[in-house]
Amino acid sequence: MTQNEPVQDNDDRLLFEAAEWLVRLASGDVTESDAAELVRWRAQSPDHDDAFRKVASIHTLTRAVATTPAPVIDRRAVLAGGSVLGAAVAAFGIMQPPLSLWPSLAELMADHRTGAGERYAFSPMAGVDIELNSRTSVSLVDSGRGIALISGEAFVDASSARQPFSVEAGSRQIIADAAILNVQALGGVLRITCARGRVQCRRDGHRDDIHAGEQLAFDTDNRTTRTRIDPAKAAAWRRGLLIFEGVPLGEVIEQINLYRAGRIILTDAALGRRSVNGVFHTDRIDSAVEQIQQALGLRSRHLPGGVLLMG
């Protein structure tokens, strides 16, 4: 196609629109409403979703420089290049959004995704029921016989499944064979709680077994912590509750961030080690923030984009 040729093919039009979406998301001015609008655009037809996936998955995105500013894209210049895909290189900024203020590329490409304050339940195969917590993204793998947890938290009931069900989280594969579990990926920490049966966690040929009433946590340094835990408390979010007993403030803030637009940031890392006790309602999460501030004597400062500095 030459520079002067009009956009005649519907596929070309959708690819161009998808590229515009990526550039728009990389501008740094994206909002939750923008993300919701993109979800609606992708849902218009399978062709819309396919166009977005094609543009978003180009190999050069993974090699682009994160600080590259998003250029003003000219339709003729894009088409003259022989492919709309090249226009998406500048969209690298959505691979790892700063402070998680908007959805990442992987989240936007997820098969199922919830926004702040939303929950969603689905059944990917017979005998398996999954409930997603607020701000959670998952994709189906192995023809629906497993999911990949991209971010957030998921409750998986595979107790009636006739075959094992898998949950991929980072570099780990979690196998539930007639088991019930809660999987949470927040703040670089993966927490796997077994509520019934036994769960296997595999990585690089190593296997950890997690029994009912146990939680296995892996941090960014690959340190492993095994604790006894009440599964009902770990999955209390399904009843609209967050229950904390001696939980570090940093972990509490990561959980609270699931339920509000924007992000709470601790201004002092030492504050993250302070202990928090309390029961909070997820549908009144701002009240929980106020209670924590009062209990610990903290101050806060509001910034644009829903950012709250707490210290």
Please write out the topology:
Blueprint: H1 10-25, H2 32-42, H3 46-56, H4 75-80, H5 105-108, E1 112-113, E2 120-125, E3 128-132, E4 137-141, E5 146-157, E6 165-169, E7 172-176, E8 180-186, E9 189-196, E10 198-203, E11 206-211, E12 214-218, E13 224-228, H6 231-234, E14 241-248, H7 249-256, E15 263-266, E16 275-281, H8 285-296, E17 300-303, E18 307-310
Parallel strand pairs: 5-6, 15-18
Antiparallel strand pairs: 1-4, 2-3, 3-5, 4-5, 5-8, 6-7, 7-10, 8-9, 9-12, 10-11, 12-13, 14-16, 17-18
Helix pairs in contact: 1-3
Concise summary:
23% of the residues lie in helices and 33% in strands. By secondary structure, the chain is an alpha+beta fold.
Verbal overview:
The structure is a single chain. This protein has eight helices and 18 strands. It has three domains: 10-108, no CATH class; 114-234, Jelly Rolls; 240-310, Phage tail protein beta-alpha-beta fold. The protein starts with 9 loop residues before the first helix and ends with a strand. Helix 1 (10-25) packs across helix 3. The longest helix has 16 residues, at 10-25. Strands 1, 2, 3, 4, 5, 6, 7, 8, 9, 10, 11, 12 and 13 form a 13-stranded mixed sheet that branches. Strands 15-18-17 form a three-stranded mixed sheet. A two-stranded antiparallel sheet has the order 14-16. The model is unreliable at 1-8 and 58-93 (pLDDT under 50). With 311 residues, it is α+β, with helices and mostly antiparallel strands. It has helices at 10-25, 32-42, 46-56, 75-80, 105-108, 231-234, 249-256, 285-296, and strands spanning 112-113, 120-125, 128-132, 137-141, 146-157, 165-169, 172-176, 180-186, 189-196, 198-203, 206-211, 214-218, 224-228, 241-248, 263-266, 275-281, 300-303, 307-310.
